[in-house]
């Protein structure tokens, strides 16, 4: 066993009956860690639990007045009370906030550890450490699940937490510091006002469909990406997308490469499957490349759907699909209903969370589907273009029934909108592009557009729109006038 520096608390791992670090965990040689030549490491805090946390780089004060013409002393005065990293932290995270944040996790912590009287509650210092780790994970674009990895192997080459607390305590605390999730949110709102903050964030980035599930407002489309599919999906998710659209249609989609990407996102980037919204489609024989039909075209229609769905699950390496969409209506309503009924079975079995339909431009047929279905359509995915009158009637029906309208061809079909004086004015008012303006206006109308951009800069811009505030009712009206 490697020699431990005094910074690591002796005996802490066993003190609370928590686990000993296992042999495969690397030890960290803190004595040899240096920030730079004029930094030394100084332990600064000893919590009541006996844990020592925080290695504060102590920099000797340098006084260099040779070029000091703009009054560094004035600036120093402003910050004279700040002598440590902790003081600086307290400037933007005062103690009272930390105490409030800790109320709920400590309630949960106490309940979970009720049988062990000796387990101490989470301290403010530990909370600060976790916030630091969350910030680090955020900076590195990682999900909160990555925290465990950061504990063991930090990108800074020093597994920060491992040096400071046992794995058991780390895991114990992290399980209570889940700030929120959709299941517990309503319950938490009763006792924890911070739960509401996450509700607001969720509303910005996702919608709740009529099936009661969260669907991202902006979904990453994977058509025509061929062998680039896997890398682009990974890039999209690391940039911030949380929804992906594909189809069991090898002619246009590489569903199996989406599956590879989804698997890598889970295993290598610790993005939870529950945080990945997967939408795929059943494409009937008419829409398939005759040489690459992913099911037996001679089977009856219901079996074709079953085989296609089984292939989708296999391709996407998952046991459930968030959203299953009919790529188009069948030639007759009765046939559409044969397909729909099979999809309803998948819902009943818990293998699909919601259903939708695509390329349906006839309001009456949508109404028929609505009336005849047991599981109502949650989404319609259509080309958003002038030739269909921008689906005005269909969109009205969708609003009534809380069906979400997913637009495609959004940018490609609408250069006239993008070049209009209204869009140019709105883009300059937001310091953005006309493409971003169109995505935001559609969201303001309640649509959930798809984007299949292959460009990282565009991915960021498209996602950035989620953080824009809505356009004013008057601006939205002016946009709607352009759709007439
Ligand atoms: N159900 C169906 O029948 C059907 C049909 C078509 C599509 N879809 C789905 O919809 C997805 C999206 O397809 P789409 O037809 O809307 O086209 P798209 O693949 O999103 O491409 C639109 C064009 O917009 C550009 N673009 C994207 N963001 C931009 C930005 N911020 N600024 C400037 N240019 C930007 C892209 O160029 P860059 O790549 O250079 O950014 C691309 O040339 C597909 O991947 C698929 O999942 C479904």
From TrEMBL:
<dbReference type="InterPro" id="IPR036812">
    <property type="entry name" value="NAD(P)_OxRdtase_dom_sf"/>
</dbReference>
<protein>
    <recommendedName>
        <fullName>NADP-dependent oxidoreductase domain-containing protein</fullName>
    </recommendedName>
</protein>
<feature type="domain" description="PiggyBac transposable element-derived protein">
    <location>
        <begin position="87"/>
        <end position="196"/>
    </location>
</feature>
<dbReference type="Pfam" id="PF00248">
    <property type="entry name" value="Aldo_ket_red"/>
</dbReference>
<feature type="region of interest" description="Disordered">
    <location>
        <begin position="1"/>
        <end position="29"/>
    </location>
</feature>
<dbReference type="GO" id="GO:0016491">
    <property type="term" value="F:oxidoreductase activity"/>
</dbReference>
<dbReference type="InterPro" id="IPR023210">
    <property type="entry name" value="NADP_OxRdtase_dom"/>
</dbReference>
<feature type="domain" description="NADP-dependent oxidoreductase">
    <location>
        <begin position="224"/>
        <end position="483"/>
    </location>
</feature>
<dbReference type="InterPro" id="IPR020471">
    <property type="entry name" value="AKR"/>
</dbReference>
<dbReference type="InterPro" id="IPR029526">
    <property type="entry name" value="PGBD"/>
</dbReference>
<dbReference type="Pfam" id="PF13843">
    <property type="entry name" value="DDE_Tnp_1_7"/>
</dbReference>
